Fold this sequence. Notes:
mainly alpha; CATH 1.20.1330
Amino acid sequence: MEWRQLQKNQEEIHTQIRNYERLSEQKTLIEGQIEHARQDITYNTTVLNKIRLKLDKLEGFSFMNMVRTWTGQQDELRAEKIDKAAVLELKINEAKKINQDLRNDLEQVTKKLTQINLPQLQEELSQLKVKKKVYLQLHNPVEAQKLEHLVDEEILTKQLMKEINEAHDAGEVALSALGQAAASLHSAGSYSTWDTFFGGGLLATHLKHDSLDKSESYLHNAQIALQRFQNELLDVQNMYTQSLHVETDGFVKFADYFFDDIFSAWSVHSKISTAREQVSRVQDDVHNTLRRLQEKQIKAKEYIEELKQEQTVILEC
Length: 317
């Protein structure tokens, strides 16, 4: 068997083994994210229930409540608690949606893992390495170690390029979802302006609330897309070669975005404007990260060409 064929076989086995490792890492990561979502649901539900109890007390009769009513404080307290309760409900609903999406992702990852026979792949790789060692001893014993190093570097770099491509694709999906969310928020903001400043009446209010419901759905799609993009970036971060490094510490931690300003006071025009500004900032961050990924991809391609040229020189000697 010729060297190039041996190398090709090794690359295919390495790719499958790396895929198993990546899926295992994602499984652990997603399990942690599911637990985090569950904790968010539990915590926010507890706080929401406490607010509901306080609202019930505000509705009951007491002399202090009478005093608050005379001074106008009771309405302010009720409005403040209702606003906080509404935000918590939105966050709980979002966490539940995220939790379900992540569970679907986990199911898919687990299914893919069961389809990979890791012990068999490791055995095949071990046998292949023996064949390569025999080949090198017969054909090029002097440069054998250097050639083997070059081959390993090429395989790792190709795998790195694959991870970068997958991260880039996930980023494009996130960018598209953010665009839909931004457009929907713009629509909601227009209805809010109409309702607030021009007395749009029941029709404008209905259209605004309908638009806000759609915005909430689009924002959820953007949130889970950003979470998946972040997970793919972590895969890139875990890949490196001896001469090519991908520093992702400077990448934006997209999973940290929960759009706190967005999930609050939907009926307030200024809050919708704040939400639009925040989505715009995230879009810029995603654009910048995609640009950096493309730069890394170009460097990886150039490095592979260098590795191939060095191998060719050795094999032709």
